[in-house]
Amino acid sequence: MKIYNRFRHIAFSALLTLGGTMGCSEDFLDRPPLDAIVDANFYQNDEQVLSASAPLYNIVWFTYNDKASHGLGDARGGILTSGSYQLQNVRFNTTGETPENGEAWRSFYNVVAQANSMINNINTFAGDAVTERIKNHAIAEGRFMRGLAYSYLVQNYGAVPIITNNTTLLQDTSITRHTEESVWQFIIKDLRFAAEHLPAQSVQRGRLNQWSAEGLLAKMYLTKAGISGTRNRTDMDSAAYFAKRVIDNSGASLMPNYEDLFKTANNNNAETLAALQWTYNAGQSNAWGAQNSVQAFLAYGSEITGFGDGWGGDIGASKWMLELYDDLTFDKRRKATFMLPGDHYTYITQVPAGGSAQQLRVPAQSEEAGRVYNTRAWVKKYVVGRPEDNDGRVVQQGTEINTYILRLADVYLTYAEAVLDVNPGEALTYYNLVRQRAGVNSKGSITWEDIFHERIMEFAMEGQAWYEFTKLHYYDPNRTYQILANQDRGTFRIYPDRIPNPTLWELEIPATDVTPRRFPVNSSNFRIPIPSVELSRAPNLRKAPVPYNFN
Q1: What local confidence, expressed as pLDDT, does residue 42 receive?
Q2: Please, which residues have CB within 8 angstroms of residue 288's CB and are 6 or more apart in sequence?
Q3: Using CA atoms, how far apart are residues 35 and 16, in angstroms rounded to an integer?
Q4: Exposed, middle or buried by CB within 10 Å (0-12, 13-18, 19+), for 511?
Q5: How confident is the model at residue 14 (pLDDT cuts 50, 70, 90)?
Q6: Rounded-to-integer distance, Cα 164 and Cα 325, Å
Q7: What's the pTM?
Q8: Which of 213, 298, 382, 467 is deepest in the core (most CB within 10 A)?
Q9: Do 94 and 101 form a contact (C-beta atoms < 8 A)?
């Protein structure tokens, strides 16, 4: 008998079926897993138990990673702008009907459902041959991913239902929300379990380990510190404690070249602490959703993808984002994240219409009064190029570039923020390590604002910016609204000083431009509303939240 669980009122069609099993090779995604709950008699040995947790690394996250991650994480955060793409998110008008909102909600609860079912099935059906070490390992993976999903849920929606048993939901028609304090307590409990039961070294390349969990714990404590309206020193100290343990003990190190972080060949590199793992041709192997599809939406044209995708010609960095960089040329993160006219990428092939293959030199598409320009700073990060740039491992709407959950630079800046008030010298050290790798000057002293801006630049287009604002909003909502409402999200022109080989660029707003540039942000539109379809299916979600019973 196969076990099928389904969120009747929370996330319909969250669970599918798993076809086949996988061997414990070095790369546990050699064969793309399917999103599912498996046979009750499946969990008979260590290999099968590890195979059951593999979908937690890709397919259950697909609907969020596909478009919602950059729609909510970057567009709402002011990083990404467009005149036609995800305008509700760009213009801070996300509603209960906004597609990316529904996709995010369903994906997060899909992760929760998959984790719950795997945990419950292992506890119920694990055979005698399953070692306690691997049993706890898989459960810890489930709790890590469940905790991560709930961190997104609580930061986007506030109070949400905490669900640990999918089967009960088959008869439950009274699902209600739980308080934000309860959700944060639940997240910390899940991640603490993961930290205590994952090994110091990953059992397979790409899998989570102890330092993945402790690093995420540090980030979660830093955000949780503000939920009372002021930053709790005990939580800040916990964030510093776990971050420093990862820094000192994980063996992770910054990649010397920032741009190399976003090349497929460097998946699971020395800086990676946790990442989603994708199989580029999963869609061709009856496992749609186990591939990374973001290049299809972000790449500016098909000439750099090799297929009919590359739909990102009207997507690019906001003016606010570009003006944060110390220098558009010398900050190495800029070119690795956004393409400006004339940028030269030796490792990406371009085949213009009617032309021949050549190294990518980003074209300037418009000209006025003898000056060439573009109106979008196209996205580069997670755009990896054509099949010939990736050993053939790219297809239409499919690459295998990892999606970062956590990397060491994040832990450095988490630690810096956590200790800034009590040990500013230590904070400065780790802050400057991130800047030095970026090729920009170190600073002699720093403030919270310096760290905030550094995080925006370091993690632009990694779906993180919005969560910097949700963290700030807990303890300083007015400052949050002020920063967001003053971001320039409108159209502008990017003029290179010359083509080819530009050395600088100018950003100008045409005198004739009348596009909206700034959008009001306040307590009424900061939080994302629960998707309307979910409210109609579970009306109790409208009721006041209640504390979760941890007993």
Answers
A1: 85
A2: 282
A3: 6
A4: exposed
A5: very low
A6: 43
A7: 0.94
A8: 213
A9: yes
Q: Which CATH number fits domain 1-6+14-20+35-180+525-551: 1.25.40.390, 3.10.350.10, 3.40.50.150, 3.40.47.10?
A: 1.25.40.390
- Helices and strands in the chain, H and E counts: 18, 12
Q: How far is the CA of 265 from the CAs of 162, 348, 406, 407, 538, in angstroms?
A: 38, 13, 18, 17, 45
> pLDDT confidence of 39, banded at 50, 70, 90?
low
For residue 41, name the pLDDT band (cuts at 50, 70, 90). confident
Within 13 A of 25's CA, how many CA atoms are on the CB side?
9
Give the pLDDT band (50/70/90) at residue 110. Answer: very high
Alpha-carbon distance of 88 to 375, in angstroms, equals 20
Residues 6+ apart with CB under 8 A from 171: none
> How many C-beta atoms surround the C-beta of residue 302 within 10 A?
18
Q: Phi first, then psi: give them for residue 363, nearest 5 degrees.
A: -75, 150
Per the CB < 8 A criterion, the answer to whether 435 and 441 are in contact is: yes
The backbone torsions φ and ψ at residue 349, rounded to the nearest 5 degrees and listed phi first, read -90, 140
Residue 298 predicted with pLDDT over 50: yes
State the pLDDT at residue 154.
Answer: 99
**Residue 291: how many CA atoms within 13 Å on its side-chain side?**
20
List b or e across 227-240, with b for residues whose CB sees 16 or more CB atoms inside 10 angstroms.
Answer: beeebbeebbebbb
Which regions of 452-519 does DSSP assign to beta strands (E)? 493-496, 505-508
CA 243/CA 376 separation, integer angstroms:
37
Nearest to 222 by CA among 238, 200, 205: 238
The predicted pLDDT at position 508 comes to: 98
pLDDT at 285: 85
Whether the Cβ atoms of residue 438 and residue 332 lie closer than 8 Å to each other:
yes
Using one digit for the tens of pLDDT, what is the confidence trace for 431-484? 999 999 999 999 999 999 999 999 999 999 999 999 999 999 999 999 999 999
State the residue for tokens 């979660």.
220
Spatial contact of 417 and 222, defined as CB atoms under 8 Å apart: yes
Residue ranges of the alpha helices (H) in 329-476? 332-337, 408-419, 424-438, 448-459, 465-475
State the CB neighbour count (10 A cutoff) for residue 545: 18
User: Measuring CA to CA, which residue among 405, 404, 446 is closest to residue 427?
Assistant: 446
Domain positions in the chain are 1-6+14-20+35-180+525-551
